[in-house]
Amino acid sequence: MRTTVATTVLSILLLAIAAHPSGGAQLLLNGDFETGDLTNWTVLDGTVFDQGVIPNPSTFDPPMSGFVYKIRPGVQHPNAGIIQTMAVVPGETYSWGLDLVGRNLQGGAEIGTFELLLNGSVVASQFWSFQQAEQASFSGNFLAGGPSVDFELRFNRTVNSFTWNPEFLVDNAFFDGRAVPEPAAPLLLALGLAGWGLRRRRS
């Protein structure tokens, strides 16, 4: 009898854990661009003067390692960039972030504007004008209101796109599991049943 009760309690706990996934899963695929290309991403404008994935830019402190996404947008290509759609759980809170570099190797023209949009809403933005090189990191939390999230990197400039100098670099983009884990109702129920089973066994 004791063995049967213990087995039942263990089964309840295992089923509850399986039904309540860990909150730390990385949902954004290839956010570090280590595939060496734009696998898992959709390009918003394929006619931009220059965009893609490049290896090991080393002119920054600290250097961006591995591969990074590079784009040189312009007025001919408004709202250029890349986007990825992920499945999420409505009502759950997720964390996001990325590293950004803007550089203009010869100066004389603005680098431009960057925006990160989640489901069409801007959650981070940066404008750089006439600098040689600038860096920024962004992070935050996002409360999912539906079953999916669009993670969109968007870039604009107000000058001609056919100059080859000003560019943006992006690395270490992420969108992952719940920022503040909360106990799920099935898990709480399972713990209660487990406690009841142990008390019954002792009696």
Q: How would you summarize what this structure contains?
A:
By secondary structure, the protein is an alpha+beta fold. The chain has helices spanning 2-19, 185-202, and strands at 42-43, 50-55, 67-72, 80-87, 93-103, 112-118, 121-128, 133-143, 148-156, 167-178.
What overall geometry do the principal axes of the alpha carbons give? globular
Largest sheet: 5 strands, antiparallel
Strand residue percentage: 35-45%
The overall pLDDT average reads 78
By CATH, the superfamily comes out as Galactose-binding domain-like
- Number of contiguous helices: 2
Number of beta-strand segments: 10
CATH class assignment: Mainly Beta
Helix/strand/pairing class, anyone?
Answer: alpha+beta
| Total count of domains | 1
Describe the protein.
The protein has one domain: Jelly Rolls (Sandwich), CATH 2.60.120.260. The protein contains 2 helices and 10 strands, in the order H-E-E-E-E-E-E-E-E-E-E-H. A 5-stranded antiparallel β-sheet has the order 1-4-9-6-7, with no helix packed on it. A 5-stranded antiparallel β-sheet has the order 2-3-10-5-8, with no helix packed on it. It starts with a helix and ends with a helix.
